[in-house]
Amino acid sequence: MSSIEIRSRPILAVDVDGVISLFGFEEPPERAPCRFQLIDGMAHCISLEAGERLRRLAPHYEMVWATGWEDRANEYLLQLLGLNMLPVIRFGGDARFGSAHWKLGPISSYAAGRRLAWIDDSLDDECHAWARARPEPTLLVPTDPARGLEDAQVDLLIDWAPGSPG
Ligand SMILES: [Mg+2]
Fold first, then answer.
1. How many whole angstroms from 15 Cα to the centroid of ligand 1?
2. Dist. CA 72–CA 47, nearest whole Å
3. CA-CA distance, 43 to 107, in Å (whole number)?
4. From the CA of 53, how far away is ligand 1's center (Å)?
5. Is CATH 2.60.120 the classification given to domain 3-20+49-160?
6. How many Å apart are CA 133 and CA 96, to the nearest integer?
7. pLDDT in tens, 86-129
8. How far is the CA of 138 from the centre of ligand 1 (A)?
C-alpha cells in the first residue's frame, strides 16, 4: 500500500461499551456471547470476535478509540483483541453512558476535513443530524449492545472504504 493510499484512508471511530464490551444479552452468563473479564474492578463481557472483526477493518481505516474508556481501552483491551495501540479521542470527563452526542465536539475536531465512519451502540438523532451536515462523507454504524460489532457491519464498512472493489 502506498503512502498516498495510507493517507487517504478514512478515520474509523470505535466505541467500546456496546461494540466490544457487550451488555443486555439474554443468554445466561455461561452462554454469553463474550468472555467475562475483570477490568479496573468491574466485570466486562468482552466480545472476542470483535477483535478479529476490527483486525479485518484495520487495513482499510485509520482507527481511533472514541469511548469514555479513553486510555483504558489501550491499557486493557489490546491484548484481548489482538490489536495494536490506537490513538485516543479525549472527552474531558463528559462521558455519559447510554448516549453518544457528547462525543460530537471532540470527534468533529479530530476528524475535521476527513472521511469518517463511526461505530457506536448509542447513536441518537443528534448524531445522525450531525453526520448529515458534515461536509465530508460520513457513515454511522449502529450496533446492538447485546451483540456488538458483527460481520454485516464489517462488510458494510469495508465496502464503504475507498479502494474497495464494489
Ligand atoms: Mg457505547
1. 5
2. 17
3. 28
4. 17
5. no
6. 23
7. 999 999 877 777 777 889 999 999 999 999 999 999 999 999 99
8. 18
